[in-house]
Amino acid sequence: MEEQLFLYYTSDLHSYFNNWPKIVSFLKEKQAQRLRDNQHMILLDNGDHIDRVHPVSEALLGQGNVALLNEANYDVVTIGNNEGITLDHDSLYHLYDDANFSVVCANIHSSDGNNPNWLHSTTYRETNSGLTIGIIGLTAPFYAFYEPLHWTIEDPFAALDREIEQLTQKADIIVLLSHLGINDDERIATSYPMIDVIIGGHTHHLFRNGEIINKSILTAAGKYGHYVGEVILTWDHDQNKLINKQAYATQIDHFSEDKESKQLISEQTKRSTTLLNQPIATLANSLNIEWYKTSLIMQQLTDILLDWTKADFAMLNAGLLLNSLPKGVVNYADIHRICPHPINPCVVTITGQELLEVIREVLTKRFMNLEVQGYGFRGKVIGKMVFSGLEIKSNRDSDGNEQVTSVMHNQQPLIMNKIYYLATADMFTFGHLSPQIARSTSKQFFMPEFIRDLLIKTLVKYYCTD
């Protein structure tokens, strides 16, 4: 006798709620179909459902996302980095208190040893025929970010080594919810052939059809909920093994919207609007934002960053502030609207020579016009770099690039081999944006504060008269 098992999943929604009612419409159609055909179905989410770029997720600290997953009858979810490192410890600890689904993540633990009741390394689901499906979750190990938030993040491969034997003993089929990225997924498929299905995410890759590596099928549904993943597994009870694995990602943009989920989002939006309507300051005049010039508010924000971190100097890119602030009352919703990024302040160590290289690079037109996706940045372009604690003199060449002629700190030239402390946005510690900063051996991340929290401090200092 053969039995088919169906897995449906979402990944990396990032609170892109425009697509959510279509996703739910698609899933309800599949749920009805599986029920008619008496086939077992498991509904999964692979992390980063939350993104505090959205006002609802900001105001409700992810609780609205959990309510949406409940309403859609999800079975199992794992934790992405946007759940893990953009909420303070207490908010994450209680995030899933009201969840009607299981949460699995084997490599995250509360640093005090007191894990929330909802957190499990693995979970098991059983079909009517007695077939057991074991599900494990793993999340990307951002060690330097989890520690200040009082979570211990474990190497995902160490966690997998610890759990895999029990999974193999208890489950007929093993499914991994992997919020690790495609490279780690491929490594896992090569090294752990007992894992039947690897549902991938974090790197926002898309497999329209599943890819077989070793004995595992890899699948991924991209980002923002434009696709929903489907895995079809065929088990032969006579042979007592899986005989077929298929995986697809279905585009859902053309689906109609589910009315109930759309109504729930509308209700959450109204509630969030009220919560975010907290006055911060009253402006006698508008504060204009310029991406390619040093605006007054951007300079003040960079000065606040320097003072708050007690670094030697600070730099922030003008593209962090998306819009100007009009005259009148500024509330928290305005702050979130112009600075929505889940980006933290940080301080790195850097030599004078490295800093000079950074300054030369960030003052080029190429760098200012750089369009960035990821690293927490939710804006358009990097924009002009604004500095505090440094006096930089330069000449502009015929191509519009600034050629640095001198850099002074405390009225003295930079000492090339001296170690300095530079405060900036954590986005520059990742990847290729600034290699000199990224390779710093000392990085201090300020958690859970975002850059917008310092923007509030800036407005309160310079524009509150009470």
Describe the model.
The chain is of the alpha/beta class. The protein has two domains: 2-272, Purple Acid Phosphatase, chain A, domain 2 (4-Layer Sandwich); 278-463, 5'-Nucleotidase, C-terminal domain (5'-nucleotidase,  domain 2, Alpha-Beta Complex). The protein is 30% helix and 28% strand. It is built from 15 helices and 25 strands. The strands form six sheets. Strands 6-4-3-2-1-14-15 form a seven-stranded mixed β-sheet, covered by helices on one side. Helix 10 packs across helix 15 (451-463).
What's a concise summary of this model?
With 466 residues, the chain is α/β, with parallel strands linked by helices. The protein has helices spanning 20-36, 55-60, 63-71, 81-84, 89-93, 143-146, 156-170, 182-191, 259-275, 296-309, 332-338, 352-362, 365-368, 435-438, 451-463; strands at residues 2-10, 40-45, 76-77, 102-104, 108-110, 119-120, 122-126, 132-139, 151-153, 173-179, 197-200, 211-213, 216-220, 227-236, 241-251, 279-283, 313-317, 328-331, 345-351, 385-388, 391-396, 402-409, 412-413, 419-425, 443-445.
